[in-house]
Design a protein that fits this description.
The chain is of the alpha+beta class. The chain is 35% helix and 14% strand. It contains nine helices and seven strands; from the N terminus they run ββαβββββαααααααα. The model has no long low-confidence stretch (mean pLDDT 92).
């Protein structure tokens, strides 16, 4: 049934695995407001209709990544998605797919964070004493990191990765993007070790580009994975050359 002219028809995925045998969709009708976001809709439902609805949110500015979910079949940040931009007044909201549902729109991100932790996502200064000075970075050095630094760790690319679906990708696009972000950072001194830690996931990527299509921040993880591969090959050729 289509929504009437001044009404939004909201369809929300509901499931609490501990209590329900299978998921279902619950329908709500809300007054049309052009400035309202999808997160705003969810908050209205929670506050005015059903306080048992579970979803994640924090910053409401598209920065924290907590509210990543499927909106009308596409990966989006609910707080950064105005309903007016969807082009329809029938809105379907579902959790990130292929991740274990804890309740409703909340999924278990433990595998995602485990992969992120495995690549040591922090700067490791070059060996030797710092000499009492700052580690400065020029604008040109900053440009080397590209859009990798814009990743907000929302988990969308991890959910969309077909290699992850098979259980053979223990790192995933976000962790590899974060590897590139620190590998390309002129202030980091752990480059060779970063490539070694990323190796097991780097070559399992099939370059399906799902991660790039899913990313709500236009980070383009596939591009950074490709650049990491190039650096890995150059590093290997350098070692072979030195041996010969």
């Amino acid at each position: 049934m289509e929504a009437c002219e001044n009404t939004i028809r909201l369809e929300i995925y509901r499931w609490e695995p501990r209590r329900e045998p299978r998921p279902r969709f619950q329908f709500f009708h809300r007054p049309w407001q052009s400035r309202l976001t999808v997160l705003g809709l969810l908050q209205e439902v929670y506050e005015e209709h059903d306080s048992s609805l579970a979803f994640r949110s924090s910053c409401r500015e598209g920065i924290c990544g907590a509210c990543a979910m499927l909106v009308n079949g596409r990966y989006r940040l609910a707080c950064a998605t105005p309903v007016a931009d969807l082009g329809t007044k029938c809105i379907t909201v579902a959790p990130l797919p292929r991740l274990r549902v804890i309740k409703d729109l909340v999924v278990d991100l433990e595998p995602f964070w485990r992969a992120h932790e495995a690549v040591r996502p922090y700067l490791t200064p070059p060996s030797g004493p710092p000499g009492g000075r700052e580690f400065l970075q020029s604008p040109r050095d900053r440009e080397r990191m590209g859009q990798a630094i814009a990743c907000i760790l929302c988990g969308s690319c991890f959910s969309a990765c077909p290699t992850h679906w098979t259980g053979k990708h223990d790192l995933g696009p976000a962790a590899l993007t974060r590897t590139f972000r620190f590998y390309a950072d002129s202030r980091d001194g752990d480059g060779a070790a970063r490539l070694a830690r990323a190796d097991r996931g780097l070559w399992r990527c099939r370059y399906a580009l799902n991660c790039t299509d899913a990313c709500p921040r236009n980070v383009n993880p596939a591009h950074h994975i490709r650049e990491l591969r190039r650096q890995a090959v150059r590093s290997w050729l350098g070692r072979v050359t030195r041996r010969t």
